[in-house]
Amino acid sequence: MLFELDFQSPVPIYKQIRDQVVLAVAEGRLLPGERLPAIRTLAEDAGVNNMTVSKAYQLLKSEGYLVTDRRSGAVVCRPSAPAGLDEDQMVRLRMLAGEAKLAGLSRAEFEALCGSLYHETEG
Amino acid sequence: MLFELDFQSPVPIYKQIRDQVVLAVAEGRLLPGERLPAIRTLAEDAGVNNMTVSKAYQLLKSEGYLVTDRRSGAVVCRPSAPAGLDEDQMVRLRMLAGEAKLAGLSRAEFEALCGSLYHETEG
Amino acid sequence: MLFELDFQSPVPIYKQIRDQVVLAVAEGRLLPGERLPAIRTLAEDAGVNNMTVSKAYQLLKSEGYLVTDRRSGAVVCRPSAPAGLDEDQMVRLRMLAGEAKLAGLSRAEFEALCGSLYHETEG
Amino acid sequence: MLFELDFQSPVPIYKQIRDQVVLAVAEGRLLPGERLPAIRTLAEDAGVNNMTVSKAYQLLKSEGYLVTDRRSGAVVCRPSAPAGLDEDQMVRLRMLAGEAKLAGLSRAEFEALCGSLYHETEG
DNA sequence: GTGGTCTAGACCACA
DNA sequence: GTGGTCTAGACCACG
């Protein structure tokens, strides 16, 4: 099963789905060209509303991680024009850098940690 | 002025305040022991409600970035026992590592970026 | 009716709500997995503001007595990893032990009293 | 030094002073007939406002733990007519019994804990 | 429907 | 002066 949803999390469910798809792609568990389950299927499996899954898929589409083909449904794809992190992502990363510093990590430790997390995603 | 709030942002205002305080501490613009503005003062300056600021301060307190002295109000402090990133922070960082990868950054580039953001906070 | 609030009490209303929920759980009047009334419902029934109830619920959540399921609202739960009394609770108990002694109770009487109060909560 | 005040505690300072006097009496560190420091002295030593100490002393007086003699100042005394715990104390103890139960303590464990805390105060 | 957030006031306890 | 609490509304995100 691809998804582990936490209904008690403050993170919206559609966001959790989106996040887990992105991670799966980054880690190579989901390959470009591969099909995602149909909305109804996934919704039933995960015990959530169709609308919730639909929202997640639309978000993924708008971010370029997904294309919907009329015949084959939702298909994974890596962003066509990778252009570095966008502003929102930079803000989040900067925030984490600050928190890491206050949490006692040195710059080297923080870099190493980031690298190892990137590596993990090598799958 | 310490705070720049974006009232259009989906990020709650109390969270924006919290974030900016944390960043300010990390960047050395706010020193441990320094006093934060009184709730009412900040609320008026920023044009938001007292309770919004109050909520931000309580969040900061619960995270250990702030203590409220019964005599002198809100005082900045670095977490007494820095213990690395917590689980939530790790999840956020891991997510960013994945997104960075899909955005076309190499591991080295990502590490360098993280390092530079950490460095920025050296203030 | 689950709640009896005393608006004259110096104890904040949100704290009273929190206390009564905890007691109800301890006494078995509220079972793990059971739903608590919706914030608005409870607020209206009790004649208090939504935010007051909301604050009580958030406090209960932070203490692990409550989880809010994104689909079905507030659900009671016993702390997953019961780990004895925390420091604050120990301080309060120690204070009471001292007061009991000064109130003329012998050690045996105090123990018996504590036991009987625990027993009451067997519900 | 008799007092250790925590200015960052949510417990009011006057209440902390009152609590520590009561504990000291219960533990025998303060004996009936003994004099407490003058308000001004204590206030200066502890770095708090005269009013704060005064409030604590008045509270202690109203509870019967203290009498003020025009010549000798504030004098410790055990309550003249020990009459068991009052209603407020019972409520607090009952609350703790419930919390102890939810924290995983058995009735026997709770009783033993209460007993040991009482014993500690034997000093 | 749910909880989360916010406003524009207010009162109180504390120091 | 400070923070803590509360009210009576409101809007939004989520499912």
From TrEMBL, chains A, B, C, D:
InterPro entries for this protein: Tscrpt_reg_HTH_GntR (IPR000524), WH-like_DNA-bd_sf (IPR036388), WH_DNA-bd_sf (IPR036390)
Domain HTH gntR-type per the UniProt entry, residue ranges: 11-79
Lineage: superkingdom: Bacteria
Pfam families xref list: GntR (PF00392)
Transmembrane stretches, start-end: none
GO MF annotation list: DNA binding; DNA-binding transcription factor activity
Keyword vocabulary terms for this entry: DNA-binding, Transcription, Transcription regulation
Stated name of the protein: GntR family transcriptional regulator
Organism of provenance: Faecalibacterium gallinarum
